[in-house]
Amino acid sequence: MGKYNYTVIIPHKNIPDLLLRCLISLPDRDDLQVIVVDDNSDPKIVDFDIFPGLNRKNTKVFFDKSGKGAGRARNIGLDNVEETKWLFFADSDDFYNPILSEKMDQYLDSDADIIYFGVDSVYSETLEPSIRKNRYNNHFVKAIESGDEYELRCKLTVPWSKFIRYEIPKKGGFRFSEIPASNDAYFSLLCAFAAKSIATDTDEVYTVTDRKNSITSKPSFDNWRARFDEMKRVNSLFKKEGKLEYHPNMFAQAYYLAKFKPVALFKYIPEMFCYTPVKYWIKDIIACVKSICGKEEYK
Question: Of the given ranges (35-49, 50-64, 267-281), which has the lowest mean pLDDT?
Answer without folding.
Answer: 267-281
